[in-house]
């Protein structure tokens, strides 16, 4: 396969995721990932954290999209009543292992899913992103003509759902490789019906501090900020809570809403919905409520967060 180079890059040095049959199908497709992130806690500690270029970068869909999917292997995925076709992450991992210039090689070579500030697990489909898509569909959340930001997007399924329903979406992930190899191809795969009317979206890599700085420059007015912020499985580490809260506070429109999907507690690292609620209450900028609970396995929740 010929490597596809994206020619639309802007770098900056600014300071800084039905019925029982459907549920079973979803579980099988996800390869039983309910406890996967929790199991990674110990293996993460064994890997040395290395410095990474976390400056924010922007990418756009090219006019010709055929090459994006050339040679890609895909799998079917179900979130509630919603069907997706997505890039096979295992195949992507095999491909990236052969690249010497790849930031995430050290992590996936150690069969690990996470290494803070190097790779944040974006190649995999995490369970809570599917919960979030299912919730948004069941709740009939309106996305037409809204501005949506998906933080820590990985495969980008919640953002893709919003895009399919008329939103303008910014997809953000820590790793540039995830954006190139997974997020953008998944958008192309699942938005074919929008080819005659190209979807309004862009993609960003980099940590939240730099993303906040870049987007904060172009979204200063309330009318330019985001109506909806989506994020899933991004609060597993307590260390990330402050920066996530900060970017949400900076970029959410006054009347906007945040939907956060996560486990109640991530064993071994201490993060989870209760801990993030504590931070929200301490800061005093937002209200927060649990609007959906998934009790199977490790309990998962959807939080609805709004400005006070």
**Helix amount, in percent?**
25-40%
Strand arrangement, major sheet: 1-2-7-6-5-8-9-11-10
Number of strands: 11
Q: Averaged pLDDT, please?
A: 82
Largest sheet: 9 strands, mixed
- Ranges where pLDDT stays below 50 over 5 or more residues in a row are 1-19, 22-53
Topology as a string of helices (H) and strands (E): EHHEEEHHHEHEHEHEHEHEE
Task: From the alpha carbons, calculate the radius of gyration and give it in angstroms.
Answer: 18 Å
Structural class from helices and strands?
alpha/beta
Roughly what fraction of the amino acids lie in strands? 15-25%
How far the N terminus sits from the C terminus, by CA atoms, comes to: 51 Å
Quick one: overall form?
globular
Number of helices: 10
Write structural notes for this entry.
- The longest helix is centred in the middle third of the chain and has 15 residues, at 176-190.
- Helix 8 (208-218) runs parallel beside helix 9.
- Helices cover 33% and strands 22% of the residues.
- The termini are far apart.
- The protein is of the alpha/beta class and 308 residues long.
- Strand 10 and strand 11 (300-307) form a beta hairpin.
- The chain has 10 helices and 11 strands.
């Amino acid at each position: 396969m010929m490597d596809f180079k994206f020619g639309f890059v802007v770098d900056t040095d600014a300071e800084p995721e039905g019925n029982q049959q459907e549920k079973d199908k979803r579980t099988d497709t996800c390869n039983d990932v309910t406890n996967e992130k929790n199991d990674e806690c110990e293996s993460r500690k064994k890997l040395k954290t290395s410095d990474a270029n976390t400056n924010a970068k922007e990418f756009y869909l090219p006019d010709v999209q055929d090459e994006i999917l050339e040679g890609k292997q895909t799998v079917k995925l179900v979130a509630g009543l919603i069907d997706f076709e997505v890039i096979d992450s295992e195949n992507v991992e095999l491909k990236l292992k052969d690249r010497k210039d790849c930031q995430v090689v050290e992590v996936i070579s150690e069969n690990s899913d996470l290494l803070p500030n190097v790779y944040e697990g974006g190649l995999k489909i995490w369970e809570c992103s599917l919960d979030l898509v299912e919730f948004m569909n069941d709740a009939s959340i309106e996305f037409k003509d809204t501005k949506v930001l998906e933080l820590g997007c990985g495969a980008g399924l919640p953002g893709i759902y919003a895009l399919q329903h008329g939103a303008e979406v910014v997809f953000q992930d820590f790793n540039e490789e995830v954006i190139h190899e997974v997020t953008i191809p998944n958008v192309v795969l699942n938005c074919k019906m929008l080819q005659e009317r190209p979807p309004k979206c862009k993609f960003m890599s980099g940590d939240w501090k730099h993303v906040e700085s870049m987007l904060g420059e172009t979204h200063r007015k309330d009318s330019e900020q985001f109506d909806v912020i989506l994020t899933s499985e991004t609060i597993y580490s307590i260390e990330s809570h402050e920066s996530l809260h900060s970017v949400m506070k900076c970029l959410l429109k006054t009347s906007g809403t945040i939907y956060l999907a996560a486990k109640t507690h991530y064993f071994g690292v201490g993060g989870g919905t209760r801990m993030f609620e504590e931070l929200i209450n301490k800061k005093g900028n937002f209200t927060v409520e649990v609007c959906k609970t998934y009790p199977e396995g490790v309990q998962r929740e959807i939080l609805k967060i709004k400005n006070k």
